[in-house]
Queue: 2 jobs
Job 1
Amino acid sequence: MGFFSAARQGRKDDVELGKGLWRRAHDRFTRGLDRYHQILEGLEDEALYAELLEIGNDLSALSGRVRQVCVAAQRYAPSEGLDIPGPLAGVHRALSMAGNSLATTAEAAAMLRLAIGPVPAGAESVRRRAASVLEQVNDAERRLEEAAAAG
């Protein structure tokens, strides 16, 4: 991404996500995805690479959903700071947990990359952690729908 397109995207993000809580949740998820994919660079075991890449693609597919939740949350309860709006506390908690789980997923992938010799369980530990990211994104969406229906 060039300088001008990055600046344009930053302005779009400011409008859609604000500069507070929801922007931070979105950006943290995006950084976690970037980190996960950085770990795959230079991985020499082709079978492990293919397995981890598939997991990474599944995680990347969640990025648009996380953005939609954050954009909708910003419209519902605009945030320019770090105060968590009461009706959307559960949404924020689920997004925070998804970001944390994504970080531990990247960490598990890094541990596999550093393993010496054959890895008996393959990428199962990474897959389990990635499944929890999906559950937490689903939870954030559900909680946002519930808050919108209630209020």
Job 2
Amino acid sequence: MTWWHGTSLVLGRGLREQLRSKTFKIVTGVLLLLSIGAVVVPRLITGGPTTYTLATVGRAPVALTTALGAAARSADFRTTYVERPDEAGVRVAVQRGEATVGLAGDRMYVPERTAGPFPGIVAQSLLRIETLRVLTDLGLTSEQVARLDSVRPPAQVFVASAQDQGRANVGYAVGLVLYLALLFSGQVISMTVATEKASRISEVLLAVLRPSQVLVGTVLAVATVATLQLLVLAVPVLVGAAVTGSSWLPAVAAPDLALAITWFVLGFCLFAFLYAAGGALVDKVTEAGTAVLPVTMLIIAGYMLGVIVVIGNPSSAWSVAASLFPLTAPLTMPIRWASGEVPVYQLALALLLTALAGLGSIWLASTVYRRALVITGHRVRLAELFGRGGGAGARRSR
């Protein structure tokens, strides 16, 4: 039996158990409902374009309805009109909420609240109509008036802290998704390892397989389930945003997407095996959460550094250090990379250091896993893991 064949057997067994569990079904169902709700609820609340109502004495002038129609198309709102016989009727319509704005002669009635930008739009349209009339009365030809009317204000360019908003969104998303994935799946990994140790299943597996095969297969099984749950959460949101044309879903360059996937894999590999090692240290399943608390605190600290320090000042010494240190780089470098101020050599160095730390994590976890699984009856002490005799001493402690 090859190493990969044995690992695949553990992976298949782990997937079957995870997918059949009630916890997986409940969590996946909740994630699916949350994802669908994130797409449907905002649409139900907004209910499409905002509608404003204009009350006028008699029929609204054609020039005004034309101007408001052009403004509505550019600003994505709808305008309806109500007619009243006199100025008093227009005022009452606004007071009763039957109209957003009332127009009677040279007076415009506006409610104290909830009018929004519509009064300004109406006033600007009336000013434009009157300006064109005055210019025509002064003798300007229709071509000259049209040229004046075509003058537009300078285009607005929104400037963000990031040079590329698409890259920024990817960077922030990588940090958040990796943070959530590690917190949830890390606990599952440690609990799985602790359960197998407490029930002596691991001893049965180790009778025919290597410890590294059992360890890697278990981690890959949980990682696969976590990825499926992330897809259940993300796909409906992304599809809904693409169909509705949401502006928060910008085009993302393929290199940035590939870099995001790389950081996710490196970060998950780095911490997932540490969670597995922590689960092997305990004798009771209820102690697993306490055993992996240092790893959890490290993940939380890394994410807080990214949110508080890196976003606030990507070029500071603390930001640079946090994005290069292997145990915090997967959570901070993607966010710092979003600022567009990271030299390529620092990105390459962070990737290299994190990859080496990931290999070290696998080696450390394999060593702890191999020696800790055979120690039962009490919580494993460091002296039993790394003292003289290693596994032999551990076996004698049983």
